Amino acid sequence: MPHIEEYSPDWDTPAAAKERRRSSLSRRNSSVWLASAAMDSQGPSRAVSRCPSGWNLTGLTPLTPLTPVIPHKKKRSLDSLPQEILTIILQYVVSSDTGPADLCRLLATCGRIYDLGVAMLYRHVVFRTPHAFDKFRWSIEGTGYGQHVRVFDFSAFTSVGLGRTKRMNSEIQMVTASTIRRALDLCSQLVEFLAAESIDTDLDAAVLDQLLTMPVLQTLDFCGATAPQFIEQLHGSLVMQQDFSFYTLTKLSLHCCNTIPAETLTAFLSKCPNLTRLDVTHTQLTDEALHAVPPTVQLTHLSLSRCVRVSNHSVVRFLVLHPACKKLKWLNLMFEATKPNPLGHRDIDTILRFLPKGMTYLNIYGQKVTDDLLQLIDTSKLRSLWLGYTQVTMKGLEHFLPSCRSLKFVNLSGIPSISTWTLKSQEFQNLSSTVDMFEFSPETLDKLAKMRGFFVFQGRGRRCWLFRSKDKVLEREQSQHNLRQTSFSFGQVALDRINARNQARRPMVQVQQTEKPPPSWDPIWRYASVKVNVSLIGLGNVSSPAIYGNEGFYNYYAYHNI
């Protein structure tokens, strides 16, 4: 590029001014060309060749075009959702009719769902056949998924329908004492072990000792286990050793384990200082075994049903004076009318007077209860009441049931003053508007073809229920909502007139539609159960008392065997 000193025209003459304007225009055109040459796609070589004479641009780098930066919209995915929301979504999937099948198909959606779904899928494992247990054991051998398992559920386990005997199953080596021990080794975080009578021969002393020494085990259920091999192995386990306690065990069910000796029961109960739920229905419980319960126990659920070897004095003394019964919410004292009952009228009177306030479940089925004893029952939070085969009358129920504002289920089977004609009366339908489920003897409901506002459901066993129809429940909830309204609304007045007009135009004879009973997981069924529910971890991480759907043998003992 030429230096400025080489060009020195005369600044005062008109020719110099003209030359200055020409050079200024030339420099302006050169700057425009530089910008265009920098953006030329043919590269700097062509740009240099078109350079005006006297300019050297060999060492210059062409400028890059300034392109506007458009911000990309962030794509939202399931991975960006919080863990709590994803857990709730997966719980809805597990709670569906298909159960874990939909959850398995959903695991391949994204990584976050896979991580949460696997833990939820393995949390509560249910074994219905030997093949299911064998497949589960092999699946956790190399994956380490056994750390997610919290519940072993054998309540529905059976080999019926496979064409095998117990001896054949033991020879196949799918569900044996050794395979159960191996599965327990891989599931060190097990919280609940739900056994049944179908695997009682596979529970040897080594399996029982391993269960009782697991670090976080809280629940043991041996419902219906009566095999001689199981009784022998239980007697030879840590249960009978001195100076050994099961501090982590909080829920124990020995429902219908009627072959366990009283000595073993006494030793077992004395080594559980932190129990909160205890079911010893139909066992050889004695006075010594009942009072062997440590004073540190704080029971909320207790079943002493059909314990014929315990005396009335021990039962009354335990329920009234023992520290373990100060926080009871659930009590079952059911006795069959055809079996000897140790409790008399005065015993029931004493028990009802000293029971803790706020009971939610009270079963005095088959006891010597009269109308005057009904007034001793605290009904502030009572949801389930069993008065079957008692000495109460219809007149006493008319005075008592309207005061039960929270009652959802009542058992009135075997009461002589209640018949089919009594059920059709207006007095019965007005007893308690909150009760959605009644239970009567099958002889009473067999003659009841249909009843307005109710429908009959016959169970598979010897039980029969009368459900309030859904229309009546909705009508009751709507009336309660209207009572809460305090402001006047012309729209509500118009809606009430339309409903009244439609009600008047309905035909007098209505065709009765068949209604289905509530599903097995509906909370109403927990009030009709005679078995203490010791499992609080439902399918798929649903840790809520709303899971009440018992399966297999538990379903039989809870709703069929009365």
TrEMBL record:
One of its GO terms (biological process) is SCF-dependent proteasomal ubiquitin-dependent protein catabolic process. Residues 1-24 are annotated as: Disordered. SMART domains: LRR_CC. Gene3D superfamilies: Ribonuclease Inhibitor. CDD domains: F-box_SF. GO terms for cellular component: SCF ubiquitin ligase complex. InterPro entries: F-box-like_dom_sf, Leu-rich_rpt_Cys-con_subtyp, LRR_dom_sf. PANTHER family: PARTNER OF PAIRED, ISOFORM B (PTHR13318:SF190), PARTNER OF PAIRED, ISOFORM B-RELATED (PTHR13318). This is Uncharacterized protein. It comes from Wickerhamiella sorbophila. The lineage of its organism: Eukaryota, Fungi, Dikarya, Ascomycota, Saccharomycotina.
